[in-house]
Design a protein that fits this description.
two-stranded parallel ribbon, single chain, elongated, 303 residues, four-stranded parallel β-sheet
């Protein structure tokens, strides 16, 4: 950056940084100084620049991993190095700003907090340049869920996370992936049979936080090809099929599994059809022999 973009020597960069922080401080009560691409900077030079910026009046020094290059252990040591080697660091708050190019933004941010950072720059849904920034909702719930290990807390109202995530998704036109941590549609959905069995016995077997804590209404047991007999039997009860014999449940489960070989997700209507027409053999009032329909974008639909 110094050589090819700024075309400045290190000494020029240091002087310019100090001058600009002094100017900012003369007109603003609080100044944050952020040396771009800090994580790939020579640490000794960075210490000198940070010291000069703080002396010039910087209240916050933000250490960006601008290109998402660092690994958590490495970034944590990097922040600790700043805390240990910048003489006046106690006069400023250490902030971090991590990008997600290697999928490490949240982990790097947490590692930084463990090593002295007290401010995290992040974004709802992890939106941002290229692969995005550290996701706010992931950081917040990591700190809340693992406060015992991280040793910090936030005052974020976690029950508003899902609502906020959806608002940002709508405003930006960027969909939330179903498998997105914390706020994705599948974050509290359980399909695997062994998981459903554990969830029915005790939710903490497969959930380290409750869906209500982030703003969802409740967990869901997804009835599909990976579902087990326990989850299927529980779902039958929820649909109103109580007091079924073991033989009836087994028979229905076999037909259900046969159907999942043809479609990944089986609807409640599919299950009711199995129960009403194959398990209980409800007499048919009508028998549909044949039907035909035609449609198109320039024709009148007929059937």
């Amino acid at each position: 950056n110094m050589k090819y973009k700024l075309k400045m020597t290190p000494d020029q960069v240091l002087k310019h940084a100090v001058d600009m922080v002094k100017y900012a401080k003369s007109i603003c009560p609080s100044v944050e100084f952020s040396p771009e691409d800090a994580s790939r900077t020579d640490p000794q030079f960075l210490y000198k620049v940070l010291e000069g910026a703080i002396d010039a009046g910087a209240d916050i020094v933000n250490i960006p991993d601008t290109v998402g290059y660092d690994i958590p252990e490495e970034y944590g040591k990097f922040i600790k190095g700043i805390k240990d080697n910048v003489p006046n660091i106690d006069k400023a708050i250490i902030s971090v700003h991590c990008h997600d190019d290697l999928g490490m933004a949240v982990a790097n941010s947490i590692a930084a907090v463990k090593n002295g950072a007290r401010q995290i720059e992040c974004a709802v849904n992890g939106i941002g340049e290229r692969a995005g920034n550290a996701a706010l909702e992931e950081i917040v719930m990591a700190i809340k869920t693992r406060e015992d290990y991280i040793g910090c807390k936030t005052d974020i109202v976690t029950t508003e996370l899902v609502k906020t995530s959806k608002l940002v998704s709508h405003a930006t036109g960027m969909d939330i992936p179903n498998n997105k941590s914390i706020v994705g549609a599948n974050a509290f959905a359980h399909e695997a049979g062994i998981h459903q069995h554990g969830m029915l016995a005790c939710s903490s077997t497969y959930e380290i936080m409750t869906p209500e804590s982030v703003g969802f209404k409740k967990s869901t047991l997804v009835i599909g090809k990976h579902s087990g007999r326990h989850g299927f039997a529980q779902h039958l009860k929820e649909l109103g099929y109580d007091n079924l014999s073991e033989d009836k449940i087994n028979e229905a489960f076999k037909k259900f599994k046969d159907l999942t070989g043809k479609k990944k997700i089986v609807s409640d209507e599919d299950i009711e059809t199995i129960m009403n027409h194959e398990i209980f053999q409800v007499p048919e009032a009508y028998d549909l022999k044949y039907f035909q329909f035609s449609s198109g974008n320039t024709t009148v639909s007929t059937s």
